[in-house]
Write a structure and sequence with these properties.
The chain has 12 helices and 29 strands. It is α/β, with parallel strands linked by helices and 565 residues long. The protein folds into 3 domains: 249 residues, Rossmann fold; 159 residues, Beta Barrel (Ribosomal Protein L25, Chain P), CATH 2.40.240; 92 residues, Ribosomal Protein L25, Chain P (Beta Barrel). A hairpin with a 5-residue loop joins strand 21 and strand 22. Bound molecules: adenosine-5'-triphosphate and magnesium ion.
Length: 565
């Protein structure tokens, strides 16, 4: 929870988070004039909820300070990157509302600058070509306890280095035969500063630059250059880069950028019992455990969108999480809380029966239909009302009837009277069973004097159930989702690191009946189904005459905001 969110006299007052405090100070001291942030995804997978945090944080800061926000693809590693991912990332960032205007960049746009930067370092005696193998470099690097050992190639002359580096560029060496290393300090307590590799030979085709290059810069060298070239003032990243900051600063300083960007680290967002991490999501997709990157059980942004989450709900979630320097894990329930809060006043409340049984009102005229005017959302009058048909045969939920009621069961059972939501009181008179002994039809009688909206009714009933008129109902498919992983066992198997999957993470109900007003519901459109939860039209599988809904979230929640406890 955001330690900067405090409740005083019932009013939320938000103090500045640590990043805002740094930026305030930088502006005050004149270290920068205008703020520029960026989101730098590697196009090797789809974005997930953790990236949403980074996007909204960077974009939010740019907005707050009237600055700029750039989208830049970190495509320095040609093996893993795909254009499919570039397109999906753009779509996701846009959907979240983060607007990069005309500032869409690629790290590969700067390959020439990076090459020039490397030459500059060589000329300053700050970089050298090294012939050690990858294993030898690792061995020479030392450990936390022991200092590293200098490479025998460390003291090559500037001329020799220039020549060898040019040869590297011209394709004269095999992959791994030579690298360019920064000449910093093999005895540094920070291992990242022990002459890190900054360029490697890799004969690979790049999705953007094709075969122009056979040497590629390493992330730690490339990233500060990209930031500096774009005039990024605050380069916000996650905590694992904290130990890389001295190298970041070294690069921008040695390359003599006049207004060097500042790297600031914050803690990654983790969700309890949820698979985040591109690698793991990718594996679930490749192993066909889920049905693609946008399977609604995942927390990729595409999946959340397909499930029915809104950008507003994700913004709210990110705001509630706050920014912090300490790693922690947030309950998935908080994300559910945010979508419920977002939809509860915005979306209409409709009637849908997910597990149907027939209810026949024996004293209601055959063939008659009457319409009830029903408000779309009792808490938000501006959503208006609709006409809902009613007739002699209805569908109700199977668990709204019990042959033999348990204690405190107030819904239908023989002899009991309940309210049919927005309609009449009915009294159960009997039931029928099919050849398997399962209840198939429930019979009842209604009392015309109890018509909803007709005013005073002296009787009270304890139970209210919802229903759908059988002759007007639309049949649909509804998917109920549970956590993809087994919460009892934890996300990862302790023995082999595999995922502990929940075998019941999806339940497909193919015989659901919806009120006819749901006809024509469009992809991504969401509704509350009364007493059930929030549901969204599946954008992939739903058809006009065969609707498919995903349950976004049920109505019940065990999650409470800390301030409500
Ligand atoms: P993953 O580990 O999930 O593959 P990544 O860090 O490799 O993620 P990148 O594409 O390199 O993914 O990250 C783009 C940006 O998103 C980086 O600035 C990174 O720090 C940030 N980011 C990634 N995961 C999270 C997270 N869980 N919470 C907040 N920010 C994140
Ligand atoms: Mg990464």
């Amino acid at each position: 929870m955001d330690e900067n969110l405090r409740v005083e006299d019932g009013q939320e007052t938000v103090s500045r988070n640590f990043i805002e405090q740094i930026i305030d100070e930088d502006l005050k001291e004149g270290h920068c004039k205008a703020v520029c942030t960026r989101f730098p995804p590697e196009p090797n997978g789809y974005l997930h909820i953790g990236h949403a945090k980074s996007i909204l944080l960077n974009y939010g800061l740019a907005q707050e300070y009237n600055g700029r926000f750039n989208l830049r693809f970190d495509d320095t590693n040609p093996t893993k990157e795909k254009t499919e991912f570039v397109e999906s990332i753009k779509e996701d960032v846009k959907w979240l509302g983060a607007d990069w205007e005309d500032r869409l960049y690629f790290a590969s746009d700067y390959f020439d600058k990076m090459y020039e930067g490397a030459i500059k370092l060589i000329k300053k005696g700050k970089a050298y070509v090294c012939d050690l193998t990858a294993d030898e470099i690792r061995e020479y690097r030392g450990t936390f306890e022991t200092p590293g050992k200098e490479s025998p190639y460390r003291n090559r002359s500037v001329e020799e280095n220039l020549e060898l580096f040019e040869n590297m560029k011209n394709g004269m060496y095999e992959d791994g035969e030579k690298v360019l290393r920064a000449k910093i300090d093999m005895a540094s307590p920070n291992i990242n500063m022990r002459d890190p590799v900054i360029y490697r030979v890799a004969h690979m085709t790049h999705h953007n630059t094709g075969d122009k290059w056979c040497i590629y810069p390493m992330y730690d060298f490339a990233h500060p250059i990209e930031d500096a070239e774009e005039g990024v003032t605050h380069s916000i990243c996650t905590l694992e880069f904290e130990d890389h900051r001295p190298l970041y600063d070294w690069v921008v300083q040695e390359l003599e950028y006049p207004n060097p960007p500042k790297q600031i680290e914050f803690a990654k967002l983790y969700l309890t019992n949820v698979v985040t991490g591109k690698r793991y999501i990718k594996k679930l997709v490749e192993d066909e455990i889920v049905d693609g990157w946008d399977d609604p059980r995942l927390v990729s942004i595409a999946a959340l969108r397909r499930r029915g989450f809104t950008p507003e709900s994700i913004q709210k979630f990110v705001d509630l999480c706050g920014v912090s320097k300490a790693n922690s894990s947030v309950d998935y329930g908080m994300l559910e809380y945010c979508i419920r809060e977002d939809l509860k006043l915005k979306r209409p409340r409709m009637m849908a029966i997910l597990d149907p049984i027939k209810l026949v009102i024996d004293n209601y005229p055959e063939g008659q239909t009457e319409y009830f005017e029903v408000p779309n959302n009792l808490e938000n009058e501006s959503l208006g009302s609709r006409q809902v048909p009613f007739g002699r045969e209805l569908y109700i939920e199977r668990d709204d009837f019990m042959e033999e009621p348990v204690k405190k069961y107030f819904r239908l059972y023989p002899g009991n009277e309940v309210r049919l939501m927005n309609a009449y009181f009915v009294t159960c008179t009997g039931f029928e069973k099919d050849e398997n002994g399962r209840v198939s039809v429930v019979h009842c009688t209604y009392d015309p004097a109890t018509r909803s909206g007709s005013g005073f009714c002296e009787r009270k009933v304890k139970g209210t159930i919802h229903w759908v008129d059988a002759s007007h109902a639309i049949k649909a498919c509804v998917r109920l989702y549970e956590n993809l992983v087994d919460e009892e066992k934890g996300v990862y198997n302790k023995e082999d690191g595999s995922l502990n999957l929940n075998p019941d993470s999806i339940k497909v109900l193919t015989e659901c009946y919806l009120e006819e007003n749901l006809k024509g519901a469009k992809p991504y459109e969401s509704f509350q189904f009364v007493r059930q939860g929030f549901f969204c039209v599946d954008a992939r599988d739903s058809k006009e005459d065969a609707l498919v809904f995903n349950r976004i979230v049920s109505l019940k929640s065990s999650f409470k905001l800390p301030t409500q406890q």
